[in-house]
Structure formats: structure tokens, C-alpha cells
């Protein structure tokens, strides 16, 4: 591990109270550049297929990453520092439920401010501790021009209405998160955020790995695991991925995105 116990506690505390924490220069940038090369043809065929169904906003695409090399990489999805922080937030025996990407292209716009999950108990009018996390990391350096993620601090523990009210009144600010290739963010998906326009010719892919409490099922996402990949996973990785569907191979037909409603 790169961080000691007290540093892990600090990151966890920050994510618990602020809704997110950022680990700088944590993943090998060179590896993520290779991911980006492999990702480009996937993105291109996805854009081709989904034209007219741009449900995340114009020229902005959500693409599930196939769970094969180079993306099925334990150095990324089972990073010990990240998993230690995730466990502090969503408890023992949490699961990994998602490996995907969000990519604004030129012509994309500001999204509506949103959360990625509804409250667990809407009738309470109060928020619970964390139950769903996203680990985000870009495959290119994020700049002012290529669509920085905008987020808010502390809104994950407020109702959405109250979070929006405090934003409106200026008590809480919307902040741009500038990230370099290799940086990662661990966030409670209820932190109010939005995507911003990419004004450059180069796509800005942001990967997302979802981790949930052990009892939570998110039907809109899953990691389809080909048998050959499964057989080569460590016991720790198999435990993380235990509730995901296992398939013989990844065929074309099943790659259509089912994660359509994304903003809460
Ligand atoms: O990729 C981004 O900048 C944010 C995308 C996002 O929040 C979404 O599509 O839910």
C-alpha cells in the first residue's frame, strides 16, 4: 500500500464529510494512456450505434468497458488503498458493480445538476450514510477546455432540494475538479455534480468503477465476466465481483447500454 493507516483514515474522513476525496498520481499514467488507446475504437463504435439516443446530453456518452484486458486489471479495480477507503465508507464485503466511462466530446454541454442514485428512503426526508460509491479517473489530463467535472462538497448528506437551495443561495459552491491522468476520486454518488462542455477535438474519457454495500443491487449496471477472465482472477477479485453475471464470451448484442436513467 502507498498510504499508512492514518492517511487512509484521513481520506475516508474527507469522503465521509465532504462527499469525495482525491488521490493524486495514484494509478500508473502510462497504463491509463494505453487504456485510452484501446478505448477510442470502442467509443467510436458506441457513438455510431447510439446516435440519436444521447440521453446524457448532446455528444456525451456512457460506455461500459468490456471486462477483458486491458480493462479487467486488478491493479486498478482492486487497488489496496482505494479498497481500504471504500471499505471505511460502505462497509465490509462491499461489491464492485460497475466498470464504465463517461465521455464528453466536442459539442457537449452543461448537464443538469444531479446525483447518480436516489435516496435509500425518500420518505425520511433525510440522508443515510454512504451506500454507493464511484471511483472516477480520467484517461487524459483534464483541462478548463475539455470538460472538467463540476462538483459540490457536503451535499451528499443533504436532501437534493436542500443541496440545490444552498447552491442557489451561494452557501455552497460548484467547483471544477481538475484531474491529471493517474489521479482518482472516490465519491459518494449523491454529491451533487454535473458534466461540463468539452470544447476540444479530443474526447475526455472519465472511467467509473462502482462499489456498493454488500446488500445493494443496482440493476442498471453490471460487470459481465467472461469465463476466461474469471478463471484468472485472484480470490480477492472474485469476492468483489461475486454477484456479477458470468458469461462464456462478450458478444455484440449484449453490449447495448441499459443504464439510461442516470440522474436523480
Ligand atoms: O463525466 C462527467 O464529467 C460527468 C458525467 C456525469 O455526471 C453523468 O453523466 O452522470
- The CATH C-level name is Mainly Beta
Number of strands: 11
Query: Helical proportion?
Result: 25-40%
Bound ligands, named by name, code or SMILES: 2-oxoglutaric acid
CATH architecture: Sandwich
Cα-atom radius of gyration:
18 Å
Largest beta sheet: strand ordering: 1-7-4-9-3-2
Q: What is the CATH topology?
A: Jelly Rolls
Compute the number of helices.
Answer: 7
Give the CATH H-level superfamily.
q2cbj1_9rhob like domain
Largest sheet: 6 strands, antiparallel
Tally of distinct domains: 1
The poorly predicted ranges are: none
Helix/strand structural class: alpha+beta
Note the gap between the termini.
Answer: 35 Å
Instruction: Give the oligomeric state of the chains in this entry, treating copies of one chain as homo and distinct chains as hetero.
Output: single chain
What is the N-to-C succession of helices and strands? HEHEHHEEEHEEEEEHHE
Protein name: Phytanoyl-CoA dioxygenase
Pfam family, one: PhyH
GO molecular function: 2-oxoglutarate-dependent dioxygenase activity
Organism: uncultured Pyrinomonadaceae bacterium
Short description:
By secondary structure, the chain is an alpha+beta fold. It contains seven helices and eleven strands.
Word description of this protein:
- The strands form three sheets. The chain has a six-stranded antiparallel beta sheet with strand order 1-7-4-9-3-2. A three-stranded antiparallel beta sheet has the order 6-5-8, with no helix packed on it. Strands 10-11 form a two-stranded parallel ribbon.
- The mean pLDDT is 95.
- It has helices at 5-18, 29-50, 74-77, 80-90, 160-169, 227-231, 235-240; strands spanning 20-23, 60-64, 95-104, 132-138, 149-151, 175-177, 184-188, 193-194, 206-212, 225-226, 246-247.
- It has one domain (5-255): Sandwich (Jelly Rolls).
- The protein is α+β, with helices and mostly antiparallel strands and 264 residues long.
- It is globular and about 50 Å long.
- The longest helix is centred in the first third of the chain and has 22 residues, at 29-50.
- Bound molecules: 2-oxoglutaric acid.
- 2-oxoglutaric acid binds next to loops.
- One of its GO terms (molecular function) is 2-oxoglutarate-dependent dioxygenase activity.
- InterPro entries: Fungal_Metabolite_Diox, Phytyl_CoA_dOase-like.
Amino acid at each position: 500500500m502507498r498510504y499508512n493507516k492514518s492517511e487512509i483514515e484521513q481520506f475516508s474522513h474527507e469522503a465521509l464529510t465532504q462527499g469525495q476525496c482525491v488521490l493524486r498520481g495514484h494509478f500508473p499514467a502510462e497504463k491509463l494512456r494505453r487504456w485510452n488507446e484501446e478505448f477510442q475504437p470502442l467509443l467510436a463504435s458506441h457513438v455510431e450505434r447510439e446516435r440519436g439516443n444521447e440521453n446524457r446530453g448532446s455528444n456525451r456518452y456512457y460506455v461500459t468497458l468490456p471486462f477483458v484486458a486491458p480493462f479487467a486489471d486488478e491493479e486498478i479495480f482492486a487497488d489496496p488503498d482505494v479498497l481500504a477507503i471504500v471499505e471505511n465508507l460502505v462497509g465490509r464485503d462491499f461489491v464492485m458493480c460497475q466498470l464504465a466511462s463517461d465521455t464528453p466530446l466536442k459539442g457537449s454541454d452543461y448537464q443538469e445538476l444531479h446525483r447518480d442514485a436516489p435516496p435509500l428512503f425518500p420518505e425520511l426526508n433525510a440522508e443515510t450514510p454512504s451506500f454507493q460509491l464511484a471511483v472516477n479517473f480520467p484517461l487524459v489530463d483534464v483541462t478548463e477546455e475539455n470538460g472538467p467535472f463540476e462538483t459540490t462538497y457536503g451535499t451528499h448528506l443533504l436532501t437534493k432540494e436542500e443541496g440545490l437551495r444552498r447552491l442557489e443561495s451561494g452557501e455552497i459552491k460548484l467547483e471544477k475538479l481538475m484531474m491529471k491522468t493517474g489521479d482518482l476520486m472516490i465519491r459518494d454518488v449523491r454529491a451533487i455534480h454535473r458534466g461540463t462542455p468539452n470544447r476540444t477535438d479530443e474526447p475526455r474519457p472519465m472511467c467509473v468503477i462502482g462499489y456498493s454495500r454488500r446488500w445493494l443491487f443496482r440493476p442498471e449496471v453490471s460487470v459481465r465476466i467472461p469465463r476466461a477472465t474469471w478463471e484468472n482472477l485472484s480470490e480477492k477479485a472474485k469476492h468483489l465481483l461475486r454477484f456479477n453475471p458470468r458469461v462464456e464470451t462478450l458478444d455484440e448484442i449484449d453490449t447495448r447500454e441499459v443504464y439510461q436513467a442516470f440522474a436523480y
